[in-house]
Amino acid sequence: MLRLLVVVLLVANAAYFAWAQGYLQSQGLAPQGESEPQRLEQQLQPQGLRILSPSESRAKVAAAAPEPPACLQTGVLDEALLPKLRTAATEALPQGSWWLENAVVPARWIVYMGQYPDNEVLEKKKAELRTRRVSFQALNNPALQPGLSLGSYPTQEQADQALADLGTRGIRTARVLQERPAVTGQRMRLPAVDEALRGRLNGLKPVLGPLEACT
Fold this sequence. Notes:
The chain contains eight helices and eight strands. It is of the alpha+beta class.
């Protein structure tokens, strides 16, 4: 009886082994295989994984996070456009998200070199200033082109002192002039501009002009 039980167990084990290995598939006896290709597509590819450094991790988190609201303001607005701006802003922007305030753009004085007869003379002067290690910048004011600014200052006294300092470095043909007088008027302030509000401001750009960080 014991021998018979052992034989039965051996036969049963052999049959299970043949079934598990698919040897009996031709007789319709085989375990059900995984036939879901999407599972293979969903598997992680270890060769594509990369461990990020702490700085890279912080950068990715910062990039994913929305920008905090920013305080923005316009420059001094054209008085003739203010009625149109008030109407457009009232219609397009949430109540309390903006207001108009008095503003003063201070005068600006520069240490100026020019006007030169042509750009060839201008380039020679630039080369001379580089040799003397004197910084300069081009001017956007058409009335002063071609010419160079060797520095801008809020008062004439500061510009005069800068000119005197440049004289000790061999600069003899520069002079002080007022590039822009003081301007008073109104500007718009937007204390909390988020992404939603930025989208609404796009339609007002022709009237608002460029926006800058609040001072």
